[in-house]
Amino acid sequence: MDRVMRLALGSVIVGLGVLALKLVAWRVTGSVALMSDALESVVNVATALAVIVALRVARRPADANHPFGHHKAEFFSAVLEGVLIVLAAVFILREAWDGLASPRALDAPGLGLAVNAVAGLINAVWAWLLIREGRRHRSPALAADGRHLMTDVVSSVGVLGGVALAVATGWWVLDPALAVLVALNILWSGWSVIRGSLSGLMDEAVSDGELARIRRIIAESAGGETALEAHDLRTRHAGPVTFIEFHLVVPGATTVEDAHTLCDRIEAALMDALPDARVTIHVEPEHKAKHSGIVVLS
């Protein structure tokens, strides 16, 4: 089992532990705001399980029905996470409405706030780890899970401060009001997760910075007297994999063997910089040159 899968399994364990703590905090206080915080952790556990399934599917090798692999399965996990977040927000808003209509004092607020603070600290550490490792391993599912957990941490901090203020002032209506703010915050989080995942499902190109890096590698590795230019460069992401396609113009007298050797050199350079790259090169004779795109360094 590799590190990405271990982190995914760890998210389930951590999520269950945090959920248990937040449920205790809610039960001892009866706070609607703390209930909303606990409900968001239910979503965390569900999406952590979805991440595991998505990672297992994404790692299946290419087959006859999926010749490009199963890498996009991770994006579906992130979309599911966004949908679950939205459903949780709707439920929180319904409970908050009842609390606004009939605000009530909280039971044992000190104990509840302390327990919730411990849960928030655990979430903060784990969210930071998931975001860092998700970027390192180019896993959109892990990164999305980490970003959502970080919004959960921000919500928890706001809830703790607000509930403490309600206890100090006796303004118990602050409790359901905070739950409304939590719901709106996670609604925004859900939309952000869905939007980021849809960009991958729609074959969005790599970032401008990464595209410039790819262009530079092609120009340098295709240099010399063999290649003339590269054009019609296209890129897309699918989970951790980057697909790169372009046309390479060579002199008409270039042999098939020489062109093949050149393409192997370019592919090796790209895959050295992007280990999960899938490179497709279409070789063309010089009269196909467009005199645009990537100028090969001589």
Automatic annotation (TrEMBL):
Alphabetical list of InterPro entries matching this protein: Cation_efflux (IPR002524), Cation_efflux_CTD (IPR027470), Cation_efflux_CTD_sf (IPR036837), Cation_efflux_TM (IPR058533), Cation_efflux_TMD_sf (IPR027469), CDF_Transporter (IPR050291)
Keyword flag Methyltransferase: no
Localization of this protein: Membrane
Domain Cation efflux protein transmembrane: 11-202
Topology in membrane: Multi-pass membrane protein
Superkingdom of this protein's organism: Bacteria
NCBIfam families, per database record: CDF
Family: Belongs to the cation diffusion facilitator (CDF) transporter (TC 2.A.4) family.
Name of the featured protein: Cation diffusion facilitator family transporter
